[in-house]
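cron nightly-structures :: item 1 of 1
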Amino acid sequence: MDRPNEGLIRGLGPWAAASIVVGTIIGTGVFLKTSVMAKTGGSAVWVLAAWGAAGLLSFTGALAYAELGGLFPRAGGEYVYLREGYGSGVAYLYAWNRFWIGTPGSIAAYAVGTATFLGDALPFGEKPIALALVVVFTAINCSSVRAGGGVQTALTALKVALIAGLAIGALGLSRAGSWARIADTGRGFPGIAAFGAMVIAALWAYDGWNNLPMAAGEVRDGSRTVPRATVRGMLGVLAIYALVNVGYFYALPFADVVSPGATSVAQRAATEFLGPAAQLVLAAAMAISAISAMHGSMLTGARVPYAVAADGLAPRGLARLGARSHVPVVAVVVQGAIACVYTLLGGFDDLTDAVVIVSWLFYGLNAGTVLLLRRRSPDAPRSFRVPGYPIVPVAFVALAFALLVDSAIVSPAITVLGAASTALGAVVYFAIARRRAPAAS
C-alpha cells in the first residue's frame, strides 16, 4: 500500500500542475538540438521524423504515467510506482540515479545553457552565472510550494508566448522561406544507428514529462489533476515543437541549420524576420525557457529523496520539512549542491546524454508497472486509463529498451557510466537492507 505524505501541503492547482509539465519539458533542447541532429541526419525530413518519433515515444510514456499518477497521487512519483510494481530494491535504484545523476544533471544542464545564452550580455564568465542561478533558485524552492508553483506558472506562460512567437514569425514573416526545404530527403535514410542517435538527442528536449508525479503529494485533487495536466501539457508541447522545428527548416537553408555560425539555430531563424534585434530577443527567450525548466526540475526532483528518506532508505534529514514552508528543504539544498558540482565539471551535451540514457531504463520499467498493477489490482479506482491498453504500454517498454541498446552502441562510455552508477546503488541498497533486517526482526 502507498504511504501518506505527512506535513506536505497540497498547494499546486491545475494551472501550476500544467505549468510544471510544460515548463520542465520545454527547456534548452528545442533551441539547440535541431542543429546537432541535422549534422547526423543529413536532411530536414529525417530530422523532423526523429523529432516525431521522440515525441510519440514520450507521449506514450506520459500516458502510462498519467494512469499511475491518478492511482498514486503521492510525493516521489516514479519511486512510488516502482516500489508498488517491483519492490523497494528497484525503486531505490531509480531514486539513486535520480538523486545523483538525473535531477542534478538536468539542473546543471539548464544552468549551463542559460549562462551560454546570457554570456555575451553580462560581464561575468558562464560558470559564475550558472552557479548563481542554481543557488538563487534553490533558495526560491525552499519557500512554500504554492510560491514555487506561482513562479513556475509565470515563467511557463512567458516562455510559451515567446516560443510561439518564434514559430509564428519563422513561418509567416521570414523573407526567404521555402516549403520545399522541409520535403528535402538529402542523402536518404541515414541508418538505424544514426536515426537512433537523433532520437536520443530529441528525447532530451522532451525530457520532463515524468516530473509532475514527483510532486503529486502537493497537487490539489491529485488523482484527477495529475493525469489531466500530464496529458494536456504533453499535447501542448508536441504542437509547439512541431511548429518550431518546421519553422526552422522553412526559414533557413539546410546548411544554415547544420552550421548556424556563432548563434543557435533559433537565433538564426529569428534573424530572418526580426533582423538584428533577434540576438537579444532570442537570448532572453532561451534564458527564460531554461530557467523555467530548471525551476520545475528543482521543485519536483527534491520530492524523490524526500519519499525515500520517509521510507527509511536514506538519511532521515532528507525527509525534514521546513517549519513554515512545509517543503523538504534539506533535500532541496543537497540537490542544489550536487547540481553545482555538475555545473563546474560537465559540458551541456555530456550532461544531457547521461541524463537521458540513465532515465530511460526506469521509464521503461515504470510503464511495465502499469501492466503489473492491471493484473494484480484490476478493480483499483483509476481516474485515468491508458488508451489502447495493453498495446501502448507494451510498445513503450519495447521501444524504451531498444533505445537503451542503441545508446549502448552509439554512446558506450556514457552507458557504462550509467550502469556503474546503478551497480553502486545496488551495493548501497543491500548494505542498507542488511542493516535494517535485524531491526525488523
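cron nightly-structures :: done
Residues 14-440 form a domain with the Amino acid/polyamine transporter I fold (CATH 1.20.1740.10).
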